[in-house]
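User: Sequence recovery, please. Input:
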């Protein structure tokens, strides 16, 4: 147990900063100086990286492992089917898992194939924006596929974010942890991905709070109609994408933490419980986001409906006031010779005065009742 006492400190930065400040650590593509999909390939023996004169190929790394022991950790970024075929043959990977790793767009899952585990993680990256609009992208997803064997660990990344270079360096700084083998790397990646979820959830919470404040803040009469509805709906779509990454991963993490597996070190397995617990909390947050956005959207639509009703009441009130002079003018506009008070000297000012008095009375009554 003493060898993994500082496990959390190794796989997590000493002080968790928001994802907005970490965006610079994301590696967008493979090294442009090489045409290979292999980002890094190394052999680890007794927890330390074996230094070689030249970069290793996956085949050379595996030969070193079979000769001298240890395990190989190979990182790839968006390999083609041809690039991955040789690695798959060398490590005996199952064809179904290989197909999933090359094609990507997979659901988070855990599958067991003979002497290897195939795990799919969805990575989430928060996209900074000055102001949320109806077209803003809030989160961007990527994928990390992991093949875990007795003496090898292979990662296949898809997407322009989610680099594992920083994580590899942190693990290399703790030989006692790496000595536990590929299962220690799998836990570190799972913890790294879930920590990313927590940071994104905090950032999304800020966006939801901003929208909620604007929807329920007073003095919104001058705001454009329908603007908030578009923003809320866009944010809801982004939360749904976040939910698709988080929810399916909960069952694999529970299996890794609860069910004994030959390829998972027992000392490492108990730490998957911590990852599963954090993932469950993020899932609750995301479900809460979805429900809260539903409520905000309904409240926004209700406010729009109330505003429309108020407009109709005002229009109806003014129409009622205008109906009085319209009626009077209509009566005296008829072409009859014998009409009451038609030739009276004070008839015209009297009719105007009565008309104005009636209109003012109607206006006062409607205003007192809140229609104007």
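Assistant: Recovered sequence (372 residues):
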């Amino acid at each position: 147990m003493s060898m993994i006492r500082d496990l959390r400190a190794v796989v997590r930065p000493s002080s968790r900063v928001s994802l907005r400040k970490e965006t610079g650590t994301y590696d967008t593509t493979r090294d442009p100086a090489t045409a290979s999909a292999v980002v890094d390939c190394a052999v680890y023996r007794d927890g330390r990286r074996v230094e070689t004169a030249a970069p290793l190929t996956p085949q050379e790394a595996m030969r070193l492992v079979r000769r001298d022991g240890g395990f190989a950790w190979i990182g790839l970024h968006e390999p083609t089917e041809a690039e991955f075929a040789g690695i798959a043959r060398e490590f005996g990977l199952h064809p179904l898992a290989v197909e999933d790793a090359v094609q990507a767009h997979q659901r988070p899952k855990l599958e067991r194939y003979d002497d290897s585990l195939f795990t799919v993680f969805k990575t989430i990256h928060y996209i900074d924006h000055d102001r949320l609009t109806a077209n803003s992208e809030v989160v961007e997803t990527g994928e990390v596929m992991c093949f875990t064997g007795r003496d090898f660990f292979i990662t296949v990344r898809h997407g322009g974010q989610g680099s594992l270079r920083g994580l590899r360096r942190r693990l290399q700084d703790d030989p006692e942890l790496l000595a536990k083998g590929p299962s220690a790397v799998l836990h570190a990646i799972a913890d790294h991905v879930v920590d990313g979820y927590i940071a994104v959830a905090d950032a999304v919470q800020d966006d939801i709070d901003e929208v909620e404040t604007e929807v329920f803040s007073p003095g919104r009469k001058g705001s454009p109609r329908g603007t908030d509805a578009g923003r809320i709906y866009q944010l809801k779509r982004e939360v749904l994408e976040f939910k698709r990454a988080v929810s399916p991963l909960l069952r694999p993490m529970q299996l890794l933490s609860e069910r004994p597996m030959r390829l998972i070190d027992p000392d490492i397995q108990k730490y998957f419980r911590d990852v599963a617990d954090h993932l469950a909390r993020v899932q609750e947050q995301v479900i809460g986001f979805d429900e809260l956005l539903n409520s905000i959207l309904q409240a926004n639509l209700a406010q729009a409906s109330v505003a429309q009703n108020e407009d109709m009441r005002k229009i109806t009130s003014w129409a009622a006031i205008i109906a009085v002079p319209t009626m009077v003018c209509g009566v005296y506009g008829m072409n009859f010779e014998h009409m009451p008070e038609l030739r009276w000297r004070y008839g015209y000012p009297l009719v105007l005065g009565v008309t104005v008095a009636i209109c003012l009375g109607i206006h006062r009554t409607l205003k007192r009742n809140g229609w104007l």
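The longest strand covers residues 116-126.
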